[in-house]
Sequence to fold (370 residues):
Amino acid sequence: MNEIQDCSRCGNCARVCTLTSLGKGAEESVLDMDPYLCSNCWKCLEVCPGTIDIYSIIMEARRNIKMPESFMFSLESILETGYSMPMEGVEHLREMFGLGKVRPVAGEKIKKLLK
Amino acid sequence: MGKVLERIGIETSHMQEWSCCGSTILSGKRHDWYILPAYNLALAEKSGRDIITLCGSCTSQFKRANKLFREEREALENTNEKLSRLGLHYPGDIKVNHILEILMDNLESIRENISRKLDYKIALQHPCNVFRPGNIAWFDDPLKPTAMRELIELTGSKVMKYSAEYQCCGSTLSLYDESLGISSGEEKLSSAQIAGAQIMAVSCGNCAFLFDRKLSEIKKINPQIKIKTLFLTQLLGLSMGFTPDEMGIRQEAPG
Fold:
């Protein structure tokens, strides 16, 4: 796949972008946007005539700036517990719907893995 | 979902000690995002089973990891070095299928098990990451997918076209910008409701999270929203003769 310098600024990605349909899209290229505003729908990848690796570029752009607080909260939760959302109450919900027991992973194991 | 799959001859079990796939949250921070998908794939490997996913994002992360492992030996070696700390090993070859892929592979068997015509008017929420990127998903048409339509039509329900049908739900967006995510959800639900749909069928946990768990927020900006969100397998189950209670549907289904 191609890199950012191969973008011809044709505007295809911006036209199909979820943010554009919500009135917050980029003028020409989704690569101009705040990378955290991306909704992960990846329509842009399907319409890019330059087969630019928009996914990797957006992820790298995210790594290069400060992570927003809400993402940070989820990230810390993943690193600590193995889950992006709190798992309390899940057992009770599963029981309510007659679903079998599922043992969650111990946070220690995730820490060991991602160390 | 388990009951519906069992009816068509597919035996499933819940993965013990599964973890979050990390989604784009982990990818937005670390280059070794593939460790968590690999951990789950290694658990499946250990139990000798393939993986069925419900969430678009998990589907994509697992498939993305498998693709990376096929192309970059080093990433797989690094992964296995980490997995060995937990006594796990991943050869890189566990098959990952989203529930829609499994159902589409079993259309005949589903048709044979349909015993009740539902006669609902249903709008579809196509899960982005199950179809895109096309070179990761390799399933259906990436921009105009038809799988959900084919499955819902088996139940005798009418699929209602609506203007925002092929738009992303906006659930992921709500993590960064809550009000933008909620207004995206409102746009989708109201557009479907105006088109005459009574039910929004979803097949991704992330979409369900926005349309169902955050419904009270959506109703704050549009109190007219009445459309009910159900998982596609719940609808198939009703059509196979299961009761709403057996399908985990708390309120009475419309119709």
Observations:
- The beta strands of chain B are 51-53, 96-98, 121-125, 158-159, 199-202, 228-231.
- Residues 21 and 58 of chain B are 6 Å apart (CA to CA).
